[in-house]
Design goal:
Strand order of the largest sheet: 3-2-1-4-5-6-7
Bound molecules: ligand GMT
Oligomer: single chain
Structural class: alpha/beta
Number of domains: 2
Helix content: 40-55%
Order of helices and strands: EHEEHEHEHHEHEHEHEHEHEHEHEHHH
Number of helices: 15
Radius of gyration: 22 Å
CATH superfamily of the largest domain: Glycogen Phosphorylase B
Amino acid sequence: MKPTKIGITCYPTVGGSGVVATELAKLLAEKGYEIHFITSSVPFRLKRIYPNIYYHEVEMSHYAVFQYPPYDLALANKMAEVINREKIDILHVHYAMPHAICAILAKQMVKHDVKIVTTLHGTDITVLAEDASFTDMIRFGIEQSDKVTAVSRSLVKQTKEMLHTDKDIEVIYNFVDEREYKPKEKTSLKAQYGIKDEEKVVIHISNFRKVKRISDIVTSFAKMLPFTNAKLLLVGDGPEYSQACQLVTQLDIRERVLFLGKQENVAELLSIADLKLLLSEKESFGLVLLEAMACGVPCIGTNTGGIPEVIIDGETGYISEVGDVESVASLGVELLMNRAKWERFSRNSLARVAQNFHSAHIVKQYERIYADLLEDK
Ligand code: GMT
């Protein structure tokens, strides 16, 4: 039997959506699907050769007459070329804007019957909150897709409210690769960073965008310090990085905070962490929470978007109101200082990931969507 051929378009650089798209691709390829990435560069999680995964680069032409290089048109053109040549059955795009819109254009250009699956990750909707002139275009991308999924119930609700659409949007949660994200033996990493054995490790991982409220991370950590001996690992880079450095100096906690910048091996860093903080003002899911929980690290997150669908308040971690740094600090101290509670939360986190976000279970949900669409062909 011929393998089902899936085209995938995502943002190939850093970011949870690119991670989810690539991990899904790898697992599908292992199951015998033929995967064709159509992206501007090789997705960063695609580090080695995978026999069933192909990569088609979107090339840009830089004609002097174009004031702005037409990336979206180049993408649609590449999608159409790959659909025709490879006889792609399903084109699965991550983000409505611009990927779903490009996919719809590509579909109109080809003779081959291809179905479009769009997965919403949240930023489409965040963009809308800032520039409502995109509403009609994003709604078009969603409504013309053959199937739409979103990474949390909260994102479905928000999308429907903001776009006034009754398009059926199915929730398929994110997942992590359990082979990589799992509790690990203690390594010498803590000592290598100059962190003493008895010191607790609090960690934050993000792209340091404004929406992540990095100053709340630093401030709440500073408020924990009189009550607990701890270090803060700040992992990632982005627009708010230098402001975070300034705040750390201002609060006089420089020896307590390690700025690690972008790191590849996050699972290893999580193995030395005791507590994970994600205090965003908007977050459709929070993949980094799942990564931490899969390593047995309890999390404190904010009461926004999909975060309460990942953390169970008082069982796997805590939920705090956006900006309430006092409450984050006292909940953090409580968890770090109460060993029995920490161990219970850590076990509950592992169990929750295994029961609700297991990759095998999530991949099956995408496979069912593909199969249903192919049946309709
Ligand atoms: O959070 C970001 O800034 C990156 C963005 C992305 O494109 O990867 O993350 C979004 O998608 C992730 C994967 O589904 C989610 O885990 C993040 O919550 C979501 N970010 C926001 O909603 C702000």
